[in-house]
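Q&A FORM
Asked by: J.P.
Topic: structure of Two-component system response regulator

PROVIDED:
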Amino acid sequence: MNSSPSQQALRVFLVEDMIPIRQRMAARFGAIDGVEIVGEAEEPAAALAGIDATGADVVVVDFRLTGGTGMELLHSLAHSTSPVITIVLTNHSSAGFRQACLAAGAQYFFDKTSEFDLACETIKRIAHGHSARGLNYTGAHHV
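REPLIED BY: S.T.
REPLY: Here is the structure written out as tokens.
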């Protein structure tokens, strides 16, 4: 965790089925000041249980997962009583996937290949807003 004791860290949960990519995400996002990686999963059911157990503030999810899809997770999170900010980070970045994920409740959508740095910047901005104003900060939707 890189947050100072006076700040509450932004709790980020990663949902990605490829271990090397998940490790890269954890390293990059976890290096952001004010961000704590609180859990990881590679399939929707384990992700839901982990998100609930950790009280995650932000969930970063891929579209394709082991035993399911990120879309299933987005739908479940959209109907959850515990609000989380959802960020889709995927290689499936066509306009149709983007629109479907945003319609399913994702607040942000990024292409893993060309927008990874932008995803990092967005998490940094959310973490800054979280420490300054609490979880009610989501910023603008990335379309």
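FOLLOW-UP: The longest helix spans residues 116-133.
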